[in-house]
Amino acid sequence: MTVKERTKPQVATMNAVHDLPVLVARDKGFFKDEGLDLEFVTTPGMAQATTSHFVKFDSVFDRPLDSVYNEGGIDQYRMCEWGIMKRAVEANTQGLRGRKIVALGASMSKFAIVVARDSKYYEPEMLKDKPIAVTPNNGSDFTTLKMMEGFLAPEHVKRTNAGSMLKRLEAVRDGKVAAASLMEPWISVAQKWGLRILIESHSTRSEAAGDDLDGPTLKRMFRAQARAVEFIEKDPTPFIHYFIRETGGLLEPHEFQTWRLLHAAPQPYTRERFEDTYNWTVKWNMTTTARGSSATRLAQDKGGDHHETLIRHHCGTTGHRVRRFRLFVHAVVRLGLDHAHRRHRRHGQLQPHRRRQLESARRCHRRRQGQGRISPHE
Question: Of the candidates 300, 294, 287, 295, which has an alpha carbon nearest to the alpha carbon of residue 100?
């Protein structure tokens, strides 16, 4: 795939719930203070009242933001942690433009599962086998699973696509679906309409970037976001107009529930965090189980400190599992040969073929010790 030539880094903005620190840093000039000349590209998001509910959902890579990224029109963006991880894994397997997971994002605002005012569902477990409207393979989908897995077995958690936040809110109101997963400002709209909240949870975002952005540039971008977070956390009121605009007039500023907003400076993305998130999504069959000879790779930018630990491409954990299995087999074989050695020493001379097997196993064991792959005590 050929990426378009660019003169400056291109940063995506979509939903305010994901991008508020970026929007504030842009409008207050914090990026420029860091010496950055960025271009901001706005893409349709499911939180915007104007978004068509006929967006393609068959593949995450057909959606507006992902399509623009694949064509080279965006270099850096953010969305829910699970969605970023899914795209980073599956873009590699599909031969698409690579994505790097470069940080845990600054936004951790809430999702909520809501039901109609007169609904007979009063607690999450009562939604057993009932359709919950989400955006497939996006934050509302993943966070719904996160919230519901403590109440229901996976086979009883049912999700469906009802379109944008506004469309799914209308579907709940009109009795077309049992419940919907929403984020702000649409949770506030749901409360204004008298809908009932069953459960809500914070949802972490991740930052993704292409190979064109280096560690020092990303560090300055995240430093500008961290500065914006300080302003937001002191008083979010001056910035709620970003959310109100997305509702298309359905919400007044005083009706927006700012207490649901939560932000912190971007943080490094660790190997342990990735493995935990990847395994969780595989458990829910939300991510392709990548196969291949290369294992998880965590790259670090040249000359960077630990905050510049940037990127992960994932090609599966098969290699680790194979190595563990081989160690297990090796230990079993060695145990069996040692047992044979002791038995033959009790009953007479070790047979020649047993002696060869034992010496071969010992040589292999010493060689693996020399390579540091097993400890001397294994």
Answer: 300
Tokens 């790779």 correspond to what residue?
A: 297
Residue 118: partners with Cβ closer than 8 Å, 6 or more residues away: none
Q: Are strands 205-209 and 100-104 parallel, antiparallel or unpaired?
A: antiparallel
**What values do phi and psi take at 297, rounded to 5?**
-120, 125
Selection from 282, 258, 138 nearest residue 203 by Cα: 138
Pairing status of strand 205-209 against strand 309-313 = unpaired
pLDDT digits (tens, 9 = 90+) for 171-198: 999 999 999 999 999 999 999 999 999 9
Neighbours of 22 (CB within 10 A): 29
Is 3.40.630.30 the CATH number for 10-108+204-316? Answer: no
Q: What is the pTM of this model?
A: 0.75
Query: For the domain 110-202, what is the CATH code?
Result: 3.40.190.10
CA distance 281 to 266: 22
Three-state DSSP string of 38-94: CEEEECCCCCCCCCCCCCCCCCHHHCHHHHHHHCCCCCEEEEEHHHHHHHHHHHHHC
